[in-house]
Amino acid sequence: MTVTKRDYYEVLGVSRSATAEEIKRAYRKLAVQHHPDKNPGDHTAEEKFKELGEAYDVLMDDNKRAAYDRMGHAAFAQGTAGPRGGGGFHDPFDIFREVFGAGGGGVFEQFFGGGGMGGSQGEVRQRGSDLRYDLQIRLEEAAFGCEKEIEIEKLDACQKCHGSGAEPGSKVTTCPTCHGRGQVIASRGFFQVAQTCPRCRGTGQAVSNPCKACGGEGRVEGRTRIKLKIPPGIDDGSRLRSSRNGEAGMRGGPPGDLYVVIHIQEHAVFEREEDNLYCEVPVRFTTAALGGEVNVPTLEGKAALKIPAGTQSGTTFKLRGKGVPTLNTSQRGDLMVRVLVEVPSKLDSEQRRKLEEFADLCGDENTPLHKSFFEKAKEWFS
């Protein structure tokens, strides 16, 4: 049964004219909603999460987005498959490689700057696939940086044959079909095009006695632990490249890269917008009226905030330099604290009497917002 992919803009719930910031905002909201950690055992949520990651990967890259807008999903139909845990990274030019029949070099590469037909065997060996890993971290870890160790399942070089694909002691010879080039010439109408050699699958080598451990491929499935350094100030949706930690290439081909996509957990207190943090802090109505000092949370602990007398609910105060560090700089964003004046929910008789006396003493002159509102809306109350 053929599975039809949904439109990437539909997946993220944005218009085709959406800005990068709108795409990022939509992705962040939906990724948190469907993250596997929040939906354990929910296969549907897991698939939606993968679908979101694939759509975000394409629409946040100007070149990929342009290719997608022109050709839709066909632009990535021959892209490299990702790891077991997420979608892969696709090359929009693979559709042209299909037309020109190039697997590891050839006519397409000759026209567009790649390797030619006359290279050595080492140049035609197929590079391993790039992999993707989705990593969730806390806001504090994103702000100040951290080190993480992840475990992934991937194809690594076979230890028995050291990636050659040949049983130890046996010889690896030049492929007699392509003569070590990894490609063969085929005619298609008026064109002569290069195709991946069907015998050696682009390696340029022939193995008479394949390695029993890897079946002659030079790589086997295994689990690998990788250490990652998360830089301070990293943003949600950022990608980190771990060079040569992707899948091993066939028969000694160079490994691909590992791309780690960062997802920042929703915080109980703070909301982040770029390098600024936002939070709401309740303040007693007596403190708001008389002024005082309150403790507010920061990523590094508590900080004192002075509340001027007569502060209104919803007033926002800025604590400079208490936000998130700006990536690759010594600067930091700010912490924006919005105060919410808290009114007592229960009063005893004595408290009620005192407040009624206070209200009589204040009158309308001491409530400027109340007075201003009723002056503007007097026609509705006449």
Shape: elongated
Largest sheet entry? 4 strands, mixed
SSE series = HHHHHHHEHEEEEEEEEEEHEEEEHHH
Strand order of the largest sheet: 10-11-15-14
Topology of helices and strands:
Blueprint: H1 8-12, H2 20-34, H3 43-59, H4 62-71, H5 94-100, H6 107-112, H7 121-124, E1 131-137, H8 139-144, E2 146-157, E3 172-174, E4 183-188, E5 191-196, E6 205-207, E7 219-230, E8 239-242, E9 258-264, E10 271-273, E11 276-284, H9 285-290, E12 292-298, E13 301-307, E14 316-319, E15 335-342, H10 349-362, H11 368-376, H12 378-381
Parallel strand pairs: 1-9, 11-15
Antiparallel strand pairs: 2-7, 3-6, 4-5, 8-9, 10-11, 12-13, 14-15
Keyword list:
alpha+beta, 15 strands, three-stranded mixed β-sheet, 26% strand, HSP40/DNAj peptide-binding domain, four-stranded mixed β-sheet, 3 domains, Helix Hairpins, 382 residues
